[in-house]
Amino acid sequence: MKLTMLGTGHAAAVECYNTCFVLSEKDKYFLIDAGGGNQILMQLKKAGIPVEQIHDIFVTHEHIDHLLGVFWMIRIIGQKINQKKYEGDLNIYCHSELAGKIESIARLTIMPKIIRLLGGRIRIVAVEDGEKRKIIDHKVKFFDIGSRKAKQYGFTLKLDNERKFTCLGDEPYNPENYEEVRKSEWLMHEAFCLYSQNERFKPYEKSHSTVKDACQAAAELKVPNLILYHTEDENLPRRKHMYTEEGRQYYRGNLFVPDDLEVIKL
């Protein structure tokens, strides 16, 4: 299993793409969020991931930096279906409140010859808190992260030998999700900025966390592998070094601060 970070930036980042990533194994791909625009298509191309091979997308929540790229995926995959260049179906997973919004926006913005595929070969699949699905041949469990803003879901995915990969969405770890997160081999946690720069970037006003907060949470949970993402972009050239340096003060496991298009073997 590989994780390809298509984007690592927060909503207003312009020096890197908005946070979204792909989990892949052999020729099967699971796209999580799609960023804020059609640059999702460029990022997939740069990563060497064929759109024709993506059959599963999960949308964590309704914020535009995670959602808008999904409509480009619907459009392009819909075109390929109509051109008989896409085998199988596309499943777009999200919580029930978001499912109707995605369909409504799609119907307002995408041409009828593609919209007619909704409910057929393009399906918007509403999932509930605690619901389990099999995606790219792995067990996936969705859960409500308890967001204080827009309703948002994270997920766990079982790797080989029952190792667990957990994505918390783009908000700090919530102790209410302890049962979902505990015993995770891998944890993805947002880190809006360095703790030393929290007065400058004010992550807490946005319901986000710092590198220090994310690393302390991972240390308390005894997670051996931590991936930090959804960051500011002003420190981008030195982000990996700066975030790793601060993180090492609070976390002794394997710390990853990926750049856009970086691949991590799980």
From TrEMBL:
GO molecular function ontology, one term from the record: 3'-tRNA processing endoribonuclease activity
Protein source organism: Murimonas intestini
Name listed for the protein in its UniProt record: Ribonuclease Z
Keywords: Endonuclease, Hydrolase, Nuclease
Stretch forming the signal peptide: none
Alphabetical list of Gene3D superfamilies matching this protein: Ribonuclease Z/Hydroxyacylglutathione hydrolase-like
Cross-referenced PANTHER family: ZINC PHOSPHODIESTERASE ELAC PROTEIN 1
Source superkingdom: Bacteria
One Pfam family per UniProt: Anti-Pycsar_Apyc1
InterPro entries xrefs: RibonucZ/Hydroxyglut_hydro
